[in-house]
Design brief:
The protein contains five helices and three strands. It has helices spanning 8-20, 24-28, 43-48, 88-94, 98-116, and strands at 33-38, 61-64, 82-87. It has a three-stranded mixed β-sheet with strand order 1-3-2. The radius of gyration is 15 Å and the shape is globular. The protein starts with 7 loop residues before the first helix and ends in a 10-residue tail after the last helix. 20% of the residues are buried.
Length: 126
């Protein structure tokens, strides 16, 4: 199945719905986190994670930043916001139906935001 079976706009709406579905107290902690939708992970991100450039489907999302546990009152101001990248192409290729995409987007958003709260991959709920 090609990526075009679900429009970018529809995919963006699913990401927004996943964010709205988070408990209010978690959403409040995301004010300095930019959520970005990218078509594909870039080669730099793949290499940094030890993923072969020719196998980008392994990476569905990525958190870039310091967890809120790592931030301090003494941090310098004016820093770029932390970022959560959600990769549309790999998610659509991994899913066969819109229901699968909805579930995967929700899982990926929660997983990447979990990193913002200091959870490792091993700490994430299954």
């Amino acid at each position: 199945m090609t990526r075009s079976w679900l429009s970018r706009k529809a995919f963006e709406s699913l990401v927004q719905e996943a964010l709205k579905g988070l408990p209010h107290e978690f959403r409040q902690c995301l004010k300095n986190v930019a959520i970005e939708i990218e078509e594909e992970p870039n080669n730099q991100a793949l290499r940094a994670l030890g993923i072969a450039d020719d196998d980008p489907d392994e990476l569905l999302g990525l958190y870039v930043g310091r967890s809120i546990q790592g931030h301090s009152f003494f941090d310098a101001g004016g820093e770029l916001p932390d970022r959560v990248y959600i990769y549309r192409g790999p998610i659509l290729r991994a899913c066969g139906t819109k229901a699968d995409v909805i579930r995967e987007v929700q899982d990926t958003v929660v997983h990447e935001i979990g990193h913002h709260f200091g959870l490792s991959d091993e700490d994430m709920p299954v």
